[in-house]
């Protein structure tokens, strides 16, 4: 398919997926001698470094500390930024209708909205718990935490059924425990952690090396009680200003092993995700753009199988479960993996514009740094879907420095993408690490199962 001289590429979202897609498109179109117009549609002009949300939730950072204003760096790269929300996607007509009333036509569309949070999945969860999954939620969690300090009591931290982002749950757990300790609240078994994962450190991918043992050891050291293979069924008001969470704990055969009713005065949850509002349109489900949860179907080239000029990147794409479990647990999508998907989408759009075959695929790897107060954890697994060819899980105070250093680096990268991404690319070529692969230069065995099997199981 050969496109007009200057096709219009529209990107929905300005998180890691949207920002990396925009910058990589501009950089790579120039390198390939092709021209295009790029428009990013986002509800905010700010990029937020979401992995730092747990620190906002405990007051160690503010929302301003983790945000980057995109207006100047986007203008420098000739990327148009529309600060509004997408209200409706019309794939048959190749256009977006925005909340501001604009109709934005496109030749190519990259959906990088990130997810919405499915609070309704568990009755009472939205009313009686907090979250650090978005900057506004993290700010509210900190306000509630300050009130909690004045009248402390039991604490619960949980990962809901179907959640696909377990890492932040562990991170918030340990950072919160450290914050309580600083307040002199290091009582025996003050905190209870529960997770839908079949065991600690499973992450929805069967675990990473010794992740289970490492987490069990750390929780025992900090007097944290834990319950795995647990389904939260309801949150409700309790007596004397407390709240209650009802849990069903299952054995490995799927039978209810024990039921729990836990009182608490402060609760943090990692909810399951769903598509953002415009992706929940039943017409998009019917025409094959998204599944019933609002996640975008993509093939190995990040393109939708029905609408070949629509691409998806990041958490908003549909993924099959990686492992069988009694309670559904989703597959994690970390920042480097998201960048890889965005780069593959950019390269394949450029191939289209040049009249060439699409051949670029993302490398599906997990790479996660989890702060834990006085220590931190690093998890690396590749590919995402077992069996992992690479699986390492380590902890230590030096990883704290690495996490904070990476946060500062990435915020600078968003401001100066062209220079720093070029350095990354050169270093990657030097050590043999590549974020995308070229199908013309590899065989089927190099492509992960996630890329071969679109859809959410």
Structure, explained:
30% of the residues lie in helices and 25% in strands. The protein has a five-stranded parallel β-sheet with strand order 5-2-1-9-19. Strands 13-12-11-17 form a four-stranded parallel β-sheet. The protein is an alpha/beta fold and 457 residues long. The chain has helices at residues 16-31, 53-57, 71-76, 125-128, 135-150, 166-182, 211-221, 282-286, 335-353, 397-415, 417-431, 449-452, and strands at residues 8-12, 37-42, 46-48, 67-69, 80-83, 86-90, 95-98, 103-105, 108-111, 116-117, 155-159, 191-195, 225-227, 230-237, 243-250, 256-264, 266-270, 273-274, 310-312, 360-362, 366-372, 375-382, 390-395, 436-438. It has twelve helices and 24 strands. Helix 1 (16-31) runs parallel beside helix 9 (335-353) and helix 10 crosses helix 11 (417-431).
The portion of residues assigned to helices is: 25-40%
Report the sheet with the most strands, covering strand number, pairing sense and barrel closure.
5 strands, parallel
Count the helices. How many? 12
Across the major sheet, the strand order is: 5-2-1-9-19
Low-confidence regions: 442-457
- Terminal CA distance reads 32 Å
Beta-strand percentage? 15-25%
- Report the average pLDDT across residues: 91
Broad shape: globular
Radius of gyration, in angstroms, nearest whole number? 22 Å
